[in-house]
Amino acid sequence: MVGAVVSQIRGADGRQPGDPARIARILLDIAETGNPPLRLLLGKDAVAVAQRMADRLATEDAAWRPVSESV
């Protein structure tokens, strides 16, 4: 299992979407701000994955809200 994941990561090396130079500029600019974010999504793919995860978490939280609030 681990070998397959490592192979997949190595196979994608250098072919990730996005502009590395633009990301570097953004990170340098953010590092100079007074209040940089703890986390930052970079790229449409990252935003989409994070949104799906947030939606899933919100659905699960809503389903268990009565239990959560009863404590």
Automatic annotation (TrEMBL):
Gene3D superfamilies: NAD(P)-binding Rossmann-like Domain (3.40.50.720)
Domain of life assignment: Bacteria
The protein, known as: Short-chain dehydrogenase
